[in-house]
Amino acid sequence: MVLAKGVLTAIDCDDPVGLANFYLKIIGGEVHGFEFGESGDSGWVEIREGERRLLAFQKIPNYQIPTWPIGNLPQQMHLDFQVGDLDEGEAFVLSIGAVKCDVQPGETFRVFLDPAGHPFCLVVPGALVP
């Protein structure tokens, strides 16, 4: 028996619209925002491909940037994106606002930080990422 048909990853941040637009450039799709709260801010934003929900971004009061790989705030989560060429992938994500992490623990993947400070990896097909 299968309980669920899909999985949606929701990422905590202070700017759901901005972070959704960053990841939209990597995975494509469409951004859908949902207002809540008295301010009318989009506190929940999703990237969708048709009816398929790909990623969600949730506004968190007092959001704190992860300090991974050192410090008191762990990475909390990270996403892996398969790319055909690491150099091309790196050039692209840097051009849209990612920062290359100082720590690069492998050769078949590269670690970056998104605009909210979450680590994410670009990986080559078949790579094993620890």
Would you kindly provide a brief summary of this structure?
This protein has 130 residues and is α/β, with parallel strands linked by helices.
Description:
With 130 residues, this protein is α/β, with parallel strands linked by helices. It folds into two domains: 9-59, Signal recognition particle alu RNA binding heterodimer, srp9/1, CATH 3.30.720; 64-130, 2,3-Dihydroxybiphenyl 1,2-Dioxygenase, domain 1 (Roll), CATH 3.10.180. Helices cover 17% and strands 33% of the residues. It has two helices and eight strands; from the N terminus they run βαββββαβββ. It has a four-stranded mixed sheet, covered by helices on one side. A four-stranded mixed sheet has the order 5-8-7-6, with helices on one face. The two termini are 30 Å apart.
For the biggest sheet, the summary is:
4 strands, mixed
Q: Strand-residue fraction?
A: 25-35%
The separation of the N and C termini measures 30 Å
How helix-rich are the residues, as a percent range?
Answer: 10-25%
Mean pLDDT, nearest integer?
87
Which descriptors would you attach to this protein?
Signal recognition particle alu RNA binding heterodimer, srp9/1, 4-stranded mixed β-sheet, globular, 2,3-Dihydroxybiphenyl 1,2-Dioxygenase, domain 1, 130 residues, alpha/beta
Topology:
Layout: E1 9-13, H1 16-27, E2 30-35, E3 42-49, E4 52-59, E5 79-82, H2 86-95, E6 99-100, E7 109-113, E8 119-123
